[in-house]
Amino acid sequence: MMDTNADGTEVQAKKSGNIEAGNSRVNSIDMTATPCDVLVIGGGPAGTTAASFLAEKGHRVVLLEKDHHPRFHIGESLLPGNLALFDRLGVGEQVRAIGVRKYAAEFISPQHGNKLQRFSFAEAWEKNMPYAYHVRRAEFDEILIRNTAKKGVEVIEGCRVKAVDFHADGATVEAAYEDGRHAYWTAKYVIDASGRDTFIANQMRAKHRNPKHNSSSFYAHFANTERHPGPAEGNISIYWFEYGWFWFIPLAGDATSVGAVVWPHYMKERNGRDLEQFLDDTIALCPPLVARMKNAKRLTKVEATGNFSYATDHTHGSRYLLIGDAYAFIDPVFSSGVLLAMRGGVFGAEAVDACLRQPTRAARALEKFDRQLRHGPRVFSWFIYRMTSPTMRDLFMGPRNYFRMKEALIALLAGDIYRKPLKFWLSLLSFQVVYYTSALTHLSRTWMAMKKRRHNIQPVLDEEIDGPANAMIEK
């Protein structure tokens, strides 16, 4: 069975789940479906960004969100690279009103006497993005989705997509409301911004575990934590420990987000303990973090997410795009999730607009989208895969600015990795050369660390963990 791309070329349709071209079910629904130009699945940062820019370009856009905003979501730390996007969307002032300023990222290593190394954004390659914000994601995401509605997007909350059927002219989307009613839309293009639900990737069986990385996370909000004085109060702190790393993110008011990102095999240590006790016991393994939480009181229940790292084997197909976490997710150590999601929304909106307005340019537009979307995860992943290695810890705890390597590294931490000059990439390449040289210099240590990491990132089977811990492992 053949399908037709936006550029008029024919491609073989993938038959998986409900993603199939030209079936009788689609034909029977088309008569009652509501038409639109673009349907966006998901109302997080990726979906709202794409929908907003497409609406500004004059397209009829429908956004379906399974939950109701505000809703809890982890990922409170934003990057300086986000700020220009907020202003482009018209929400800059609103984000500033709810945010805590973050001037730097801090790394604390027990292998270096719990030394603190601070990377100030003002020292990055470009000096015009000296800070970012921490936000409560419930508030932040609600700002974005309400702004999307103001731009003319039809936003429907409490409506979960159940099936997408692609055909020559676009797609038919079936969704269910919370009261059980079903509704249908026909769209010329579908943008999947469904986050970790990875709706289209799951139905096409195109989502795969990342063989180079794997982690699990559990976290909560706390009151009465110890913050730094002065401008450093809002800095994000990353604490390495034996089984992974912690984040410490100060939020507005007296709330701090604290979480652990750990190797999957550490989850075996839970042994039936409830999540609250397991998080407390894990924090106890990191003395400098314990010192900042000696008077802390937990404000929220402990949430958990299993098997963080995955990727989809393609970024787009006939009449659809994947953006944000619906495409891939690596690890939150650099707080890159919101930046990559919103950048993907921008790239996706530009590509879909080109496909709809100039079908003859669709192939070129989609090729550009593919390069743009893969760029961010590719740049971050090299560092993330090595972040817990002893060599990387040494370099982070004793940074040098030869060939402007430190400035380039801080630019990476700031999310300033798009449209950079060649000399910027040469500086990052120089850092990589120094990394490999140092790793070879300490070859025995490097080899042992590689063996340990390969063991630790192996997926944990459900039956290997007792009782309720199974909920932490993504199926």
Describe the 3D structure.
Strands 3, 4, 9, 10, 11, 12, 21 and 22 form an eight-stranded mixed sheet that branches. The protein has helices spanning 24-29, 45-56, 83-89, 92-98, 137-150, 199-203, 275-283, 287-292, 337-357, 362-385, 390-397, 405-414, 422-441, 443-456; strands at 2-4, 10-12, 34-41, 61-65, 100-102, 104-109, 115-120, 132-134, 154-157, 159-167, 170-177, 182-192, 207-209, 216-223, 236-241, 244-251, 255-262, 297-298, 303-305, 310-312, 316-317, 320-322, 328-329. The longest helix has 24 residues, at 362-385. β3 (34-41), α2 and β4 (61-65) form a beta-alpha-beta unit. It is of the alpha+beta class.
Short account of what is shown:
This protein is α+β, with helices and mostly antiparallel strands.
What is the helical fraction, as a range of percent? Answer: 25-40%
Number of helices: 14
Instruction: Work out the strand percent.
Output: 15-25%
How would a textbook summarize the main sheet?
Answer: 8 strands, mixed
Would you report the number of β strands?
23
Mean pLDDT: 90
Strand-pairing-aware structural class: alpha+beta
Distance between the termini: 31 Å
Low-pLDDT stretches are 1-28, 462-475
Rounded to an integer, what's the Rg over CA atoms? 23 Å
Shape type: globular
List its salient traits.
eight-stranded mixed sheet; alpha+beta; disordered C terminus; globular; 475 residues
Question: How are the elements arranged and paired?
Answer:
Elements: E1 2-4, E2 10-12, H1 24-29, E3 34-41, H2 45-56, E4 61-65, H3 83-89, H4 92-98, E5 100-102, E6 104-109, E7 115-120, E8 132-134, H5 137-150, E9 154-157, E10 159-167, E11 170-177, E12 182-192, H6 199-203, E13 207-209, E14 216-223, E15 236-241, E16 244-251, E17 255-262, H7 275-283, H8 287-292, E18 297-298, E19 303-305, E20 310-312, E21 316-317, E22 320-322, E23 328-329, H9 337-357, H10 362-385, H11 390-397, H12 405-414, H13 422-441, H14 443-456
Parallel strand pairs: 3-4, 3-12, 4-9, 6-15, 12-22
Antiparallel strand pairs: 1-2, 5-8, 6-7, 10-11, 11-12, 13-20, 14-17, 14-18, 14-19, 15-16, 16-17, 20-23, 21-22
Helix pairs in contact: 2-5, 2-9, 9-10, 12-13
